[in-house]
Amino acid sequence: MSENNQIIGEDDYILLKDFKVETEVDEEKGFILCFWVYIFNSNAFPSTILKQVYAETNSSPPLLVLDEKTLMIFPLTCLLNEALGPGNTDLPSEVPKVSAEIEHPQNNWIHVGYEVSSDFVRLYINGEIAGELHLSSLSNDNSMPNGSRKRTLIGITGDSNLQGFIHDAKVLPSTLSIKEQYVKDPPLRLSIDESSISDIEEDNGFWNIVGGKASCRRIFSLDVLLLNTFGQPVNKELEVVASLLYAHNWLPVEKTNDEEPPLLASCDGIEFASCDRPCKLSKGRASFKLKISK
């Protein structure tokens, strides 16, 4: 490895389709690759989340694949190049892999750890070993020589059925603990303070207004909390904006016929378009007074 700690990406949260990185690794010395992944829309299985690109052979086999509730990781090994022809991206079923069952793989943050040594590869899910594959039986004298070989891991492209994010992706020395990386920088999320509201339900990241007459459901107040994925409160200065989206496709609701914004925020008795009125988090909490125009 060229450095002891390589941070992948400059942003905290990267769309899968935008995730692209190039890094040098030395499989003889070993290394770990770890990251948080969030999948919120996958209708076709199996779906490739990340794939590896080998410039030497012009091949791009999958690295991380989701097949319904099974998460599979394929070893960074020359055997993949031998199984694939130039330009091919399909992975034969006989290629070895490490698999783990995930109870709720979508709409949840999952921490994936990938440990590589000269003898084995291991898959970690949320800090715990989920599977292992010994490489001694897979060695091939015709493989490319050992040493640093540059590879590119990229987010999935050309698959409109898979959407999600990558957070805190790192390549690190194998001497470090994946468990420690799991608890080091967990993703953040906004959650409703249930003690501050009524007639609002939260489901898979959507806040649904329920109960009462339609006219009454148009005006409501709520407090939101900034938590990490472990449910712990986070005190961080941020601005948050309320948006009105369609539940089936996450697209913004259009303006009304008279060009009124679909969601209004009230401040000191004056209504503003919610997108024009960010609310500052104070000690990890923000309060909204909102009105749905239609």
TrEMBL record:
Protein name: Uncharacterized protein
InterPro entries: ConA-like_dom_sf
UniProt xrefs under Gene3D superfamilies: 2.60.120.200
Native organism: Gossypium aridum
SUPFAM superfamilies tied to this protein: Concanavalin A-like lectins/glucanases
